[in-house]
Amino acid sequence: MNRERIAHLIREILKEIGEDPDREGLRETPERIARMYEEIFAGYRQDPEEVLNGAIFHERYDEMVVVKDIDFYSMCEHHMLPFFGVAHVAYIPRDKVIGLSKIPRIVDIYARRLQIQEKMTVQIAETLQRLLNPLGVAVVVEATHLCSVMRGVKKPRNRMITSAMLGIFRRDLRTRNEFLQIIGKSTTI
What we know:
CATH architecture of the largest domain: 2-Layer Sandwich
Radius of gyration: 20 Å
């Protein structure tokens, strides 16, 4: 990322909306936004396999593993406004488990990109399926989108829920329902 170029472009945007980028409150804003973009779009520079850093372990465990309420922040690719919420992730191992901190890191990799929630949900599920080859993966993401809260329809309480069910979570209704019960959702997803 070219921070200087981004800062220059932000200065131009400030001018175009009728602001003075040289006034006291805005003088450092272009540089702050450039640094912020480096942080909130870090997912473009991260590879899930590298983030795992060898944290896949051979273990004879065949029950559901669930990490729920993983906070995330992302940016809508349609309006470049934030959406944020929680992700719930489960998998059923097939002789391999992943270090606990790695699942939230995978969520962050995909959240820290211009994104739509539906795609992010599937990316998380498919990445875990590819890296672990488990019996199945389930991902449910719940989020509030500022593009529908502060502009457009302006509905502050609406939340979007997306899911991706792979393997046994797709085929076996009992397994899917157990996951949904664990995360506190109805079985209508």
